[in-house]
Amino acid sequence: MRRRRALLLAACASACASIALPPAHAATDDDSADRVPRQVVDPVPLKPLPGRLGYAFNKPDILLRQRLFGLAHGVSLLAAGCLDLSEHTVAVQHAYADWHARHAQALEAIVGDLATHYFGAQAGAAQWPDLVQALGLKQDIRLALGGFELSVACATLVAAIAKPRYDLTTLLREEPATALATIDGLPPPATASEKTAAPATAVAPQTTPAPTTESAGPTAPTPSPSSPPYAPSYAPFSHR
């Protein structure tokens, strides 16, 4: 079981997540004897450019890619976690492999754009974990799920990633506002022509409503860039 889980994590880290990997080198009789074992060294995490840490709320194109990356990270994290539950192993493996194959090109574009955004000239050296760290995403699926049970999340994963919210390829081609609305389960914003064509409605005179138990309560604070509302939204457990 641990081997299958490691293989899936490796697949995400290399096949769908790596940036600028060198081309595969086929071994030949000429160089096999001269090959020298290389020492494996853990890469030093890259540091984002000044002012680039977290979410780019003022750049819709980048914000969309950040949200899509978060979704992809959540899907891979949950898929790996589901391999510990034998009743979901086969279904999750097949669904994840199909989902990744359909969105591999979109993922490559998303990762490349975010690497450039965060690391500039060092983008070619960036790896998936560098982007996870730059976005502040959780790396433990149980922490990411919060109060949800892993078994419940795994039971819904196959159906969830078939929904428009996880269609990375389509969302990446859409206008950022429309795609972000889909991710958040909201109706698409009105276009300029729709706003122009909308008939004017009479505005009723405003009156001060009588206080109620609802209106007397505190209002929810407005999210700010210092406390982004998007950080936990990559979690793959979703009924949207």
From TrEMBL:
<protein>
    <submittedName>
        <fullName>Na+/H+ antiporter NhaD</fullName>
    </submittedName>
</protein>
<feature type="compositionally biased region" description="Pro residues">
    <location>
        <begin position="220"/>
        <end position="231"/>
    </location>
</feature>
<keyword id="KW-0732">Signal</keyword>
<feature type="compositionally biased region" description="Low complexity">
    <location>
        <begin position="191"/>
        <end position="219"/>
    </location>
</feature>
<feature type="signal peptide">
    <location>
        <begin position="1"/>
        <end position="26"/>
    </location>
</feature>
<feature type="region of interest" description="Disordered">
    <location>
        <begin position="183"/>
        <end position="240"/>
    </location>
</feature>
